[in-house]
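A.,

Following up on our hallway conversation. Structure tokens first:
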């Protein structure tokens, strides 16, 4: 019997063996996009198993399937996922289509991990290269983000070439501290500093943030960027600890593609013109006499008789047409071992004021190399040389330099042009001649910058269920900045005063960051549960050395500090170090339930105790209802509910922990004495704790996608300054004294409205609002230093129970003759929205445009305060204008609504047909695209100055809603030529 059983068993095995062999097979082929370009790194997985592979640099893949029939799942970043049924060994080439709604794109969720957007538990915004620069030319990255991200408020501090922007994610995160998001470019912490030039010492401005400086994100060419991820709140940015308090912006630059080397050339040619000129008051002889006197009337009549018109100094100063060129050349290619992207660009942009402009030279080399099956590395190298000439705008105190001030008091019947000998007349009504300043004074800066990032990946373990990897990365950002301000001794305000002024700055910034991360991916429950665990350490070092050398009483015609009599040197040194540990665990059950928990411990030399660690937790949960087994509603292709909580921080400003010393003469010898402000050795970081909840909905195979998010972000332990009694020996102390909260809603709708062979229309709408409130204040309500000009003209006023950016002025509400601070408005808008559209006609024409709208919010128009004083405000010929002059000159008089509707971008492009290209160029040229575009093409607003987006205080602090004679914003139009070889 045993022999019979063995014989039968052997026969059964021999019978099954051929069947088993027939059930196994290999599927191979090439993965490419819609233009037949190979897609490297595409994932190919047998559905329902952990059996998978990825395509190589040429898009080739090969996978062994254990049994047929089977379903292969193809996916890659930026492309829609495809599923294909296979019944046996075969060659299967797959074409992936570009993702419309972005559900398949990969989003960073940790310092070394990522997740598909459809599984994301936070409202993380992404901006692709096409969205960023695909419509029109962009000077800076931050300016290119207008209207494209819900929850991102952008304020322009200057319309000068080279930018000047303040980015705020989900409201104000700090009153005295940092409100700009942390920016990371290819893993390198990117310095976005705003550098004062010393101009205020000539103009009489109060603070360095009033000097019309740009911020240094301008050094990054927007055309080098592949995509941007924006972690808007603490629930998403918690993994970045005490550097993520204001949100995080992750920028990835372009990478190489394997295959034949391809070269791309782009040329933009454009122009700058003033976007919204205010015009001149329509003077008559009678209005001149009634405003001034009979002598001025005589001058008016003489000018009219001599030249037939008045001098329109607004047009003379702001009316230049600036020429813009932007030239770019790059190459990309590689093989199965190495991929590269190298390129360079040069942008030269003239401003709307003569002798102003901005130029930027960029060189980039991004290299990816596979050393072996265990090691691979990525190197990202960028060199930038940029120069700006920003001239003189913004606030001053009788410096005779700022154009807005001089134009407010320059009467258009007075000739300010030089005579035949080159002598400029004095301005009879103000301390400066704007034509002299334009032609002879200088306000410039230059920057040399090197940004280097390097990442080494080591695959320690790779099995069917476990993959362990060590990631070592580091980055260097070195910036050498030089500033130069020169006012000749012959300038009107310099005669008898400073006798000429010069300031030269030498400023160096060095940032180094490094991190070591262990990443473990584990497949459990037969592949139904995926676990991603990461843990590591991070280090950040920042050093700065700012030297400003100034001189007054210049020798005639000399332009350096050596040839001045009264010389002064300021130097500011800072050194900061951060160190942290972090760990995070992500669990994904069948793409149905995705949970994340994490914790970060940070210490910083800017905290009161530099060795004390502060903890920042995070947790999130996403439930993909449409992926659950019972779901069978075909019209709803995605339904996800998500919630998240996280904490981030922001250390005290450098120097807040100690009491500064100043130089003094003691007994005839130089000594040191304590300055008025007392440091707090126990100051702790500000902490943001955010709760977020929302849902994502996809309809009709995700042709329509909707996202909704609500957040509540509490910022605790605000670092503020309070007055001290004189008996303490100090005047003030900076320490933790308050709390605030931001609450908001963000909505986003994207839709493929029409998609056929000859007409495609994709549209997107984003809407958001934020409400802030000071919830605790351990000091009396106060006007925020550096955010206004006192309660007389109006200022941002910090008060418990009120919005953080309310405007207040002194008013007598009871009629008893006693004034008190009173809220008159709020800079915070009711809501903001952006509407973008992309249309393709007959596969050859691309039409795109972006509208941006802001509803509500107020500005203090202090430019009108000056023009009213000078009698030149355009509306003073009207009854309303004259009535305004009878109102007391306080903040209430100059508060204006700052809402608007703007056509931010618009373009039309034409792609030459392939047959036409082949006829003209043969095989040399692959694609040619021509186009016209524009930025800021029109503006509808009730605001009566140049632009409702204003900030006299630069990008620092609260920095919004207060205008004092800015550099006017411009309208730009471009012609584009793009050629791919």
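Then the amino acids I'd put at each of the 981 positions:
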């Amino acid at each position: 019997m045993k022999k019979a059983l063995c014989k039968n068993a052997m026969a059964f095995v021999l019978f099954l063996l051929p069947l088993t062999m027939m059930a196994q097979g290999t599927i191979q082929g090439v993965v490419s996009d819609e233009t037949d370009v190979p897609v490297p790194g595409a994932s190919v997985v047998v559905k329902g198993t952990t059996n998978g592979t990825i395509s190589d640099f040429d898009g080739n893949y090969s996978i062994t399937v254990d049994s047929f029939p089977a379903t292969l799942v193809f996916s890659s970043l930026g492309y829609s996922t495809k599923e294909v049924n296979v019944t046996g060994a075969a060659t299967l080439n797959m074409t992936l289509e570009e993702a419309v709604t972005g559900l398949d794109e990969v989003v960073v969720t940790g310092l070394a991990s990522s997740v598909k957007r459809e599984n994301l538990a936070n409202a993380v915004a992404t901006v692709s290269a096409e969205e960023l620069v695909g419509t029109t030319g962009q000077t800076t990255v931050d300016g290119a983000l207008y209207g494209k991200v819900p929850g991102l408020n952008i304020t322009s501090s200057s319309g000068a070439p080279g930018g000047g922007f303040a980015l705020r994610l989900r409201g104000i995160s700090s009153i005295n501290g940092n409100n700009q998001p942390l920016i990371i470019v290819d893993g390198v912490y990117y310095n976005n500093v705003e550098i004062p030039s010393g101009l205020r010492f000539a103009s009489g401005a109060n603070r360095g943030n009033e000097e019309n400086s740009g911020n240094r994100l301008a050094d990054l060419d927007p055309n080098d960027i592949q995509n941007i991820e924006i972690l808007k709140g603490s629930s998403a940015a918690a993994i970045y600890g005490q550097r993520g308090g204001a949100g995080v912006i992750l920028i990835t630059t372009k990478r190489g593609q394997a295959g034949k080397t391809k070269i791309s050339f782009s040329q933009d040619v454009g122009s700058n013109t003033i976007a919204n000129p205010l015009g001149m008051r329509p003077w008559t002889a009678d209005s001149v006499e009634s405003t001034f006197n009979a002598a001025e009337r005589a001058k008016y009549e003489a000018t009219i008789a001599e030249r037939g018109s008045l001098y329109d100094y607004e047009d003379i100063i702001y009316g230049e047409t600036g020429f813009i060129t932007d030239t770019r050349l790059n190459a990309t290619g590689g093989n199965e071992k190495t991929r590269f992207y190298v390129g360079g660009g040069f942008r030269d942009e003239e401003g709307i004021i003569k002798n102003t402009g901005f130029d930027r030279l960029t060189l980039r080399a991004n290299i990816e190399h596979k050393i072996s099956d265990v090691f691979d590395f990525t190197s990202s190298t960028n060199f930038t040389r940029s120069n700006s000439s920003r001239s003189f705008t913004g606030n001053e105190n009788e410096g005779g330099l700022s154009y807005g001030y001089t134009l407010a008091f320059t009467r258009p019947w007075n000739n300010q042009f030089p005579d035949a000998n080159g002598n400029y007349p004095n301005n009879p009504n103000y301390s400066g001649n704007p034509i002299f300043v334009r032609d002879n004074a200088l306000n410039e800066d230059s920057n040399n910058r090197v940004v280097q990032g390097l990442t080494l990946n080591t695959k320690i373990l790779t099995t069917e269920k476990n993959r362990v990897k060590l990631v070592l990365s580091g980055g260097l950002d070195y910036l050498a900045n030089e500033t130069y301000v020169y006012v000749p001794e012959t300038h009107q305000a310099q005669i008898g005063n400073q006798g000429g002024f010069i300031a030269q700055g030498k400023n160096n910034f060095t940032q180094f960051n490094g991190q070591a991360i262990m990443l473990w991916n584990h497949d459990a429950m037969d592949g139904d549960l995926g676990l991603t665990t990461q843990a590591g350490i991070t280090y950040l070092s920042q050093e700065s050395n700012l030297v400003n050398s100034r001189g007054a009483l210049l020798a005639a015609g000399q332009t350096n500090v050596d040839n001045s009599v009264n010389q002064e040197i300021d130097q500011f040194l800072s050194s900061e170090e951060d160190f942290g540990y972090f760990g995070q665990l992500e669990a994904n059950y069948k793409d149905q339930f995705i949970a994340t928990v994490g914790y970060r411990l940070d210490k910083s030399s800017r905290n009161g105790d530099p060795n004390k660690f502060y903890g920042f937790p995070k947790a999130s949960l996403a439930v993909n209802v449409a992926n659950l087994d019972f779901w069978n509603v075909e019209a709803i292709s995605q339904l996800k509910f998500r919630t998240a909580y996280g904490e981030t921080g922001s250390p005290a400003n450098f120097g807040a922990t100690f009491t500064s010393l100043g130089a003094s003469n003691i007994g005839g010898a130089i000594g040191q004495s304590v300055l008025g402000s007392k440091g707090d050795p126990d100051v702790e970081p500000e902490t943001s704790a955010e709760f977020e909840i929302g849902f994502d909905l996809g309809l009709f195979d995700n042709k329509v996608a909707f996202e909704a998010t609500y957040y509540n972000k509490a910022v605790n332990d605000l670092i503020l300054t309070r007055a001290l009694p004189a008996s303490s020996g100090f005047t003030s102390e900076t320490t933790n004294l308050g709390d605030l909260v931001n609450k908001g809603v963000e909505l986003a709708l994207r839709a493929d409205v029409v998609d056929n062979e000859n007409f495609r229309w994709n549209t997107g709408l984003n809407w958001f609002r934020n409400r802030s409130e000071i919830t605790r204040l351990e000091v009396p309500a106060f006007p925020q230093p550096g955010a206004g000009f006192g309660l007389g003209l109006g200022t941002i006023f910090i008060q418990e129970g009120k919005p953080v950016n309310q405007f207040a002025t002194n008013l007598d509400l009871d009629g008893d003759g006693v004034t008190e601070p009173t809220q008159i408005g709020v800079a915070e808008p009711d809501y903001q929205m952006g509407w973008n559209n992309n249309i393709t006609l007959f596969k050859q024409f691309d039409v795109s445009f972006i509208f941006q709208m802001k509803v509500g919010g107020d500005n203090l128009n202090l430019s009108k305060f000056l023009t009213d004083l000078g009698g030149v405000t355009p509306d003073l010929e009207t009854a309303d204008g004259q009535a305004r002059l009878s109102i007391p000159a306080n903040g209430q008089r100059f508060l204006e609504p700052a809402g608007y509707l703007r056509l931010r971008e618009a373009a039309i492009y034409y792609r030459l047909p392939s047959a036409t290209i082949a006829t003209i160029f043969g095989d040399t040229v692959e694609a040619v695209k021509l186009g016209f575009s524009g930025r800021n093409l029109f503006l509808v607003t009730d605001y009566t100055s140049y632009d409702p987006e204003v900030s006299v205080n630069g990008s620092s602090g609260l920095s919004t809603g207060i205008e004092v004679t800015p550099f006017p914003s411009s309208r730009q139009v471009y012609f584009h030529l793009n050629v791919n070889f």
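Residues 332 and 341 are 5 Å apart (CA to CA). Curious whether your intuition agrees with the design.

B.
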